[in-house]
Amino acid sequence: MRLRKRRKTHVNGWRVVRRCVLFFMAVCVVPVVLVLVVATDHYMRPVRHSSFVPQQWDRKEKVIVEEPKLNHNMTLIARRLERRRKHMKRTCRILGLDRHGNDTLHRPNPWEFLVDTKHHLVWCNVFKAASTSWMYNFNILAGYSPRFLKKSKLVPMTLARQRYPRPSLQALRRAFNTSISFLIARHPLERLLSAYRDKLQYALPHTHHRKLGNEIIVKYRYKMKSQNAGLSTQRWPTFPEFVEYLVDSVRNGERLDMHWTPIAEFCTPCMFDFEVIAHTETLHEDQTYLIRRARLERLIGPEWRNAGRGTTADQVEKYYSQLTRSQILQLYHIYRYRISILN
Question: What does the pLDDT read at residue 68?
Answer without folding.
Answer: 46
